[in-house]
Amino acid sequence: MTGLLAASNTISKNIHSPHIAVYDNQMHEKELYEARLLGDMDKALEEHQFMVVFQPKYDITTDTPRLCSAEVLIRWKHPEFGFVRPDSFMPLFEENGRIKEAGQICVARGGKNSLSAGRICTVRQCPFR
Questions:
Q1: pLDDT, tens digit (0-9, with 9 covering 90-100), for 65-94
Q2: Which structural domains are found in the chain, ordered by start?
Q3: Which residues lie closer than 8 Å to 53 by C-beta, 6 or more apart?
Q4: Are 93 and 99 in contact (CB under 8 A)?
Q5: Are 116 and 87 spatial neighbours (Cβ–Cβ below 8 Å)?
Q6: Which member of 41, 77, 120, 127 has the greatest number of CB atoms within 10 A?
Q7: In this structure, what are the phi and psi dihedrals at residue 61, rounded to the nearest 5 degrees?
Q8: Average pLDDT, whole number, for the chain?
Q9: Residue 53: strand pairing partners
């Protein structure tokens, strides 16, 4: 019964017509993948499989572009799947009430990395408070 309930939930999220609903193998594979990611999340947090990278931001309003800041991005290096796309795991964090943990990783590791590089780290907007 659990499989039928999951299929029904998936169909209701992806319904394009009020009269026709289709549940296909691709949807099933996505559910299995997401369930696996959810199951691996605690271990990933414990084993520091999440890392941060910096996305540079440039001021291009002058003749010479100037690095003015950087955005901290979270990445997951899964031991079996390799790098997992953020759009695959971030919604899972959000839907399962674990988004604060992702934010804490970004703030803690992003700040640590910027301080070790001799930069001052400031957090302007933090939705994880």
A1: 988 888 888 889 999 999 999 999 999 989
A2: 2-116 (3.20.20.450)
A3: 72, 73, 75
A4: yes
A5: no
A6: 41
A7: -85, -5
A8: 77
A9: 73
Give the largest CA-CA distance in the chain: 63
At position 44, the amino acid (one-letter code) is A
Convert the pLDDT of each residue in 89-106 to its tens digit: 999 989 988 888 877 877
* pLDDT tens by residue, 25-47: 888 898 899 999 999 999 998 89
Question: Amino acid letter at 101?
Answer: E
